[in-house]
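Course assignment 3, question 2. Fill in each field.
Student: A.L.
Task: Predict the tertiary structure for the chain below.
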Amino acid sequence: MKNLAHGTGRRKTSVARVYLREGNGTIIVNGKEIKEFFPVDEHVIQVELPLNVTDSLGKYNVVVTVKGGGISGQAGAIRHGLSRALVQLDETNRASLKANGFLTRDSRMVERKKFGQKGARRKFQFSKR
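Answer field:
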């Protein structure tokens, strides 16, 4: 099966490689059906949003490999990669995807823990006496 387009999406610490192929609209994530991979419907809806916006929900099969992070970050990474792949496939999709903010990489990451502290911002309890 030949890939029509591909895109790389990132969110938090997750990285998703998304491949678009000719087909009837099935979405396979790491070898599993999307509803099997994401037990929460909210994440499935988030992944399918770029396809809904561009009216291509039943046109392509989507094959995804995703690594790192949790399920929320992985869903965001897949959405980002799928949006990039749809733009690569057809440049006219860019306007609608950009208007919904799907092409923008969400750069928010977990702040690192600092030395001499309990966490990123939390300090150890201060005792006056």
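Instructor remarks: Helices lie at 34-37, 41-53, 71-89, 94-99. Residues 50 and 83 are 6 Å apart (CA to CA).
Grade: pending
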